[in-house]
Amino acid sequence: TVVAHEFGRHAAPGPFVSSNVVALALSGSPHKEMIAGLLDGTAIASWCFSEASPVDELDSLRLEITPDGDHVLLHGVKRPVESADQASHLLVTGRTGQGLSQVLVATSTPGITLSPMRGVDLTRRYSVVRFDQVRVPASAVLGQLGEAQAMVEKQLQHALVLLTAEAVGAMQAAFDMTVEWAFDRYSFGRPLASYQALKHRFANMATWLQASHAISDEAARAVHDGRPEAAELVSAAKSYIGDHGSELVQECVQLHGGIGVTYEHDLHLFLRRVTLARALLGTPAAHRRRMARLVATKKLAQ
After folding, report:
1. Cα torsion for 235, 226, 146, 108, to the nearest 10°?
2. Number of C-beta neighbours around residue 83 at 10 A
3. Are 15 and 4 within 8 A, CB to CB?
4. Tens digit of pLDDT for each residue in 279-294?
5. Would you state the pLDDT for residue 54?
6. What's the mean pLDDT in 180-187?
7. Which of 74, 127, 212, 228 is the most exposed place for a label (fewest CB within 10 A)?
8. Is the pLDDT at 122 greater than 70, yes or no?
9. Which of 257, 246, 242 is nearest to 178 (CA)?
10. How far apart are CA 161 and CA 154, in angstroms?
11. Residue whose C-alpha is closest to residue 275's, from 264, 263, 284, 266
């Protein structure tokens, strides 16, 4: 999370979250060369998890992974997939019957089609990946077919922790930049930061920022410790930071005045990063629904 925070604070490019999720999934597997390549940066592998609307809820994956003798067949569409055009392999999460399965597939495999997507973050590239009855050896399956639910949940929690930490880093950079500007910019002989109306807005932003730091850190601790409430906490963090992060950076844009909406000013880089983080791996509304399901399931189990 420290590295993720710095990625956000500097609007750094690169498939940080996706590659870390794939490395996590491959830990303990025989794919040692792939893991080494991910760790030293010589290889890129992307996680094919999300799917397009209207089946973009976190629990409603439709891509099919079906056994076919000594092989498995993949059929479906994944979007958005980060750096798919640069990746040598894709970790594909799909459904086998009522369970989830994961397969490591080379991007050069016949039947895979990549289509570039236009994104708001200029430092990241995403693609639509189509699998048309892609046939791969059964040895490419991670674990057992239809039994990857627990592993996928773990990967999702790690991805959300890194994504929220990165968003908080971008929020911090935008806030610090705006505070400095408010003290440097004078209006009617006084710095902007001295005006009471702006002090109230800065107070609100500081509250959102500190709360975002707190909930992001607590979610990371819960995932690290394997606590039973980790799933709820990561969704709470994603929902809160998704809503208040966008609000905070939009406030920063407004407080910068005209230069805040210019392409030449760095502020738009952080606005883009926070906006993208809000949309990836479930919107705030999707995570509120996920929390409601988790709480309801616990109540029924009592």
Report:
1. 80
2. 18
3. no
4. 999 999 999 999 999 9
5. 59
6. 90
7. 228
8. yes
9. 257
10. 11
11. 284
C-alpha torsion 95→97→98→104, nearest 10: -30
Measured CA angle at 260 (ends 256, 261), to 5 deg: 150
Residue 231's closest CA among 287, 284, 166, 165?
287
204 contacts 175 by C-beta, under 8 angstroms:
no
Question: Cβ-count burial of 228 within 10 angstroms (0-12 exposed, 13-18 middle, 19+ buried)?
Answer: exposed
Beta-strand ranges (E) seen in the chain are: 45-48, 64-68, 71-82, 89-96, 99-106, 112-117, 126-137, 186-187, 190-191
> By percentage, how much of the chain surpasses pLDDT 90?
81
This prediction has a pTM of 0.93
d(CA 143, CA 39): 22
Strands 89-96 and 45-48: parallel
Give every CB contact of residue 71 below 8 A, 6+ residues apart in sequence.
135, 136, 137, 138
The tokens describing 169, both together, are 């880093």
Q: Rounded to whole angstroms, how far apart are CA atoms 165 and 4?
A: 6
30-79: pLDDT as tens digits: 888 889 999 888 899 999 999 987 545 667 789 999 999 999 999 999 99
pLDDT tier at 11, thresholds 50, 70, 90: very high
Is the bond leading into 54 cis (omega within 30 degrees of zero)?
yes
CB atoms within 10 A of CB 53: 7
